[in-house]
Each structure stands twice: as C-alpha cells, then as structure tokens.
Amino acid sequence: MARIVAIAAGLGLLLAGITTSGRQPGAPQPPAFDSVSQRHSWVLTTLLPWMEQFQERYHNVPRSDGEFLRWLIVTTQRKKGLEIGTANGYSAIWLGLGLEETGGHLTTIEIQPDRVREAKENLKRAGLLDRIVSVVEGDALKVVPKLEGTFDFAFIDVGPAAAAFVDAVVPKLAPQSLLVAHRPPFPGALRDYLDKVGRRSNWLTTVIQTGAPTALILTYVRD
Ligand SMILES: C[S@@+](CC[C@H](N)C(=O)[O-])C[C@H]1O[C@@H](n2cnc3c(N)ncnc32)[C@H](O)[C@@H]1O
Known about the structure:
By secondary structure, the protein is of the alpha/beta class. The chain contains 9 helices and 9 strands. The strands form 2 sheets. It has a 7-stranded mixed beta sheet, sandwiched between helices. A two-stranded antiparallel sheet has the order 1-2.
C-alpha cells in the first residue's frame, strides 16, 4: 500500500512539473520564484537545457553562442534589440536574459505561425514574454520597415539568406549599433553577407566561432 501511495505521489509530482505541448513535449513548468536571479538560474539550468534537445529541429544557436549573445548585450549595455528568425525562442531567451539586466527590450520576428506559438510558450516559461521580449509574426522583410523607433542591436538568424535582410535592418539601426548574424555550418555560407557588410569601410566586422561549426559575424555600425 505504502508503495502504491509513493508511486502515485511521484506521478503527481511529475505531472505537476511537466506538461506536453505540441512539438515540444515535456516542457518544465516554472515554480514560483523569490527573485529575478532565482528565475534566471532556473532558465539557465532547467528551461534552456530542456530546449537544447530540440536544437537540430529549430536550428538554434549553440549554447556557447547564446551565452556570448547575453554577454554582449550586458557588457555593451544594449537597450533595444531586434531579432530576425525567432524559431522556438531559444536565442531570444538568451538575448532577453541580457536585456532584462540592462533594462532593455527585444522585438523578435518569426514567419511560421506554429513557431511563433512555441516561442511565446517558451518565453512565457522564462518570464520574459511581452515584458522583455515581444514576438511579432510575419515576414521580417515586410515587418521591419514598419517598426517604430531605432534599435542598438540586431541579430539576423535566418539560415543562408541573411544578406537579403541587411537592407531592411540597417535603416532601423541607431549610430554605434551592433549587427550580428548567425552563420550556418555550410561551406561558403554567408559569403554574400560578409561581402555586403565588408564593403562599408566605416563599419568594423569580425567573425567568431564560440560554437563551431556555426559562427557569429559581428559588425559595429558606426554611423
Ligand atoms: C535558424 S532559425 C532561428 C533560430 C533562433 N534564432 C534560435 O537560435 O533559437 C531561422 C528561423 O527564421 C525564420 N524565418 C525565415 N525567413 C523569415 C522571414 N522572412 N521573416 C521572419 N522569419 C523568418 C524561420 O521560419 C526559422 O524559424
């Protein structure tokens, strides 16, 4: 009898802590937090590791890139972030953790409605949805020109097509912004993007590989 009670209690705990959600089964549910740092710690140790099992499906940045993006936001005190290509919200959570620390905000754009829904669910679990990160559904090439105001940070993560988004994003960047692109692991990927940003002699571009075989292309947009 005691064994049955113990099994039932264990099952109850499991059901309370885990839900199934479409293509992302078994999502961990956030407990009540006493502080922002306690929530951030849960996101880093529980939510993000759970999301990492779906990394190949969504072509998320590697964890090391996520850590670097957060570091970049905090150390350079970015306040207004723009992301093109949300997928399920993995990189948006890393950016959002940084922007919550700087008092900033991220607008992230995703074209696939089911991914928008999944990203919103994950950002809500992280305690970032709407307050720190807004998800906009649509084609970024059409959405970005209609966004109000300017940004001091932009992250383009749309696979091999990043170059096509530069002309839409750059008019929205304030002077001294950071423009970052995620380079997928295909031979020669984003060569056209590198050509495009490299042509601007006043900009400063470098490529880093925190999470090889993918890379981040960082551009300092001076003007
Ligand atoms: C590589 S995934 C993004 C991964 C995400 N940044 C992460 O690391 O968690 C690229 C995403 O860009 C989206 N996408 C492609 N073209 C787009 C467009 N024109 N506007 C908005 N999103 C687009 C795709 O649907 C896909 O979900």
